[in-house]
What does this fold into?
Amino acid sequence: MSRKDWSIGPLHTSLPGPMHMVLKLHGEIIDACQVETGFLHRGLEKQCELHSWHAALFYADHLDPEGAVFSELVLCLAVEEIAGIMVPERAQSIRLVLVELGRISSHLAFMARMARSVGSETIVHYVLRDRERILDLFELLTGARVSLNFLRYGGVKGDVTDGFIERVLDVCDLIRFRMKEYNDIFTFNAIFLKRTLGVAPLSVELIEQAGITGPNARASGVREDSRKGSPLYQALEFDIPSGKSEDFFAQGWRGLLARTSKGCVGDVHDRFLVRLREMTQSIEILRQLVAQMPLGVYQNTSIHIDRNYPIPPGESYQRMESARGRLGCHVVSDGQNFPGRIQFSTPTRASLWALPQLVRGIRIEDLPVVLASLDLSIAEADR
It folds into this structure.
């Protein structure tokens, strides 16, 4: 059978963003893969260093278009540690409400991409319809739907608006109710199972080599979540969903089509299921946050970081669990009115590093499904 090279990108409908892939094919099987990125490079970190501390939050807001609040929060945590800025409890709760809403919103967008990758247009309209309800909440509180720019060093820009808490609970009830629809229409659909079961399993060895975190790692049984042990989440109770393929082996298509007979497969379907379960846990976290919302101020009134506000010399590294995995931020201050150095460590970069090994041996028609299952954000990789 002949072997040939096939080039995809840098712009293609099956790709998650501007990237270039060169595939070596043996018939319809991928023998090797080369991944090239850099087509979307924006110099975001350098722009942060050329502007004031306050302006750095505006640039961090654009690190990942679908998860603006995650990059805002991790930068705030690093700067607040250097400057010794205390954050009021009410502001902490408002931040976490936005974070968990952002997690659900990102996972719903992931579901829409997964549906498109297998040609299921029905579920696309279902999940985007529900995601609009979350974007409405963002607009109600921050005035924006995507690039929120609502967090500030020492707190948040404003207090919760009238009716916001009630609408958060309404959205939680709605998404929890919709879960049955998602499962009936898509999750356990026979065609979707055939396209995802046993496809591109992610091994624990590859996870450790590449440094993969987040849902992609948890789908293979690596139960690590930066929220556990974090002071921000210490008063909240929630579980860490992980891939449990062995629980489904005796059930229908799972038992018929799975390629392994025990353990956590970590295949495409597991990566989908983990994110579905994480939305349920985020709903429980939101309900706890709303019930425990403390009174008080939403901003540390002892500071006022404007264009000329200097941060004391120091260095800090903070991390948090974004919707795609562990997001880190390294900040260096030399005592001036602008950052000395800001660096982000993004989860997508590790997944891109592992991609050539992950797709080796799969069929070419499964490539869009595998790419969608990894939930890649080229914007945060080419920062």
Remarks:
- Residues 246-264 have pLDDT under 50 and may be disordered.
- The domain at 43-239+265-346 is CATH 1.10.645.10 (Cytochrome-c3 Hydrogenase; chain B).
